[in-house]
Amino acid sequence: MRLRKSDACVIDGETEASQLAEEPGSGVVIVGGGHAGGSVAALLRQYHYTGSIMIIGDEPLHPYQRPPLSKAWLKGEADAESLLLRPASFYEENHIALRLGAHVERIDRSAKTVVLKGGETIRYTTLILATGARARRITLPGLHLKGVLELRTAADADLLKAALGPGKRLAVVGGGYIGLEAAASARALGAEVVVIERESRVLARVACEALSTFFQDYHRAKGVTFVLGAGVEAIEGTGGVAEGVRLSSGELITADAVLVGVGAVPNQELAQAADLTCDNGIVVDLSARTSNPDIYAIGDCTRRPMPLYEGRMHRLESVPNALEQAKQAAAAITGRTPPLGETPWFWSDQYDLKLQIAGLPFDATQILIRGDPHALPEGGARFAVFHLDAQNRVQAVEAINAGPEFMAGRQIIGSRKPVAPSKLRDMSVSMKEVAA
Amino acid sequence: MAKITYITHAGDSRTLDVKTGLTVMEGAIKNNVPGIDADCGGACACATCHVYVHEAWTDKVGTPSAMEESMLDFAEGVKSNSRLSCQIRVTDDLDGLTVTTPESQH
Prior knowledge:
Helix content of chain A: 10-25%
Shape of chain B: globular
Largest sheet of chain A: 5 strands, parallel
Number of strands of chain A: 26
Largest sheet of chain B: 5 strands, mixed
Radius of gyration of chain B: 12 Å
Order of helices and strands of chain B: EEHEHHEE
Number of strands of chain B: 5
Strand order of the largest sheet of chain A: 3-2-1-7-19
Distance between the termini of chain A: 56 Å
Largest interface: A-B, 33 and 23 residues
Distance between the termini of chain B: 30 Å
Number of helices of chain B: 3
Shape of chain A: globular
Helix content of chain B: 10-25%
Structural class of chain A: alpha/beta
Oligomer: heterodimer
């Protein structure tokens, strides 16, 4: 059977063609070519979806992995090919059409089309929004100066990489994961690094105090300078080029480049304009469905139910979440059994530290530390922080170089079973026994 | 290039040419081989790329690092020939390697 070109997807060749639908304008259109968008397209084919699939992405690149941008990519340890989620040939072989460097301007729900910048309309049967999040922009004089950077895309990472090296000085505004990972990579490249944080500790929004202290000490031992509890007044420069960060105290932190990493905001404007329910993220259910049954949303742009946490709604910025929701959407679209719920998790690599976090400490009333958080780099740091609720159920675990604590922790969180704190605290009791 | 054979839990088999230097996990992901999730992209952080290495190859593939071992310890259905495929780098010596994916990665 020979296929016609459909409105939504250009299909060439006859491989598996007999299985593909040929109705013009039918199929899945995915807005956003990041980790979520690329993954859901691949999963749909893995689940034998036979309609057309098109990914519309505003970046010029094939779907790629963002986590290495602040780590291996920045340090020059990964090449462009290894960054790609799948090789370029994959999309052709699997009849996944790519419209790269294209921007969707609006969704027409009644016509079931998306309208691209320039006016072209593309029809969909099912729409998946995988629009991601963007770096939060603070209002600050001097943000336009050359050398003021953010880190979200490969293009951002290239600019940052070019600004780093021996003798260069990087100021990081914001002591979150992006800032700390970039700081660690910048040190590896020989640059001097100053991290400026508004709160009194780094990772203030996302980690407990013990972990913040540990990371500060570790980074200091690696040569990073911290300015904590510091407001930023402006970024200053001459001739259009940034030269430093002026603090509220009046002090000037000189720098060749300034990385601003102060959080992310969901790209929900398209959904909002199409009257989809949004609330700091496009609101979806456990099938990743939005308030319109023909439109799904996955990844950083969504606000989703958290079944392990009394069904709370939450926005997760993580690859595991993007993949979980990609599975939910692909299963719903192809009529498969919904995937089992997963315990949310995150990871971060800094120097030789592997931080793995499982769960979220929404209802935690107590913190319990297993191992020694004061052991310094040379001693081989290895510990975990457990967050327990009033019934001694583990809500979250933050593990440093501690695989068993993370893996067992993830299982215990999922089981919702109470644990014995005395055992959990005791390193001589194995995590297997704690989890039993 | 090395030929790597991936067999799913259900018994479906695919043999692929995987570039040396890539990992066995990358060979699977880049070719959409089902049964390997690799949520973390190869950071040895999630144990969702668990495979069973066929007996004839366990020596050539080598033994897991302490970190990998501790992750594997808690993976579903772990056996003596279990490995995380993101930690197996493809070399010419591994031409012909066969791995089987477990029933589930989660």
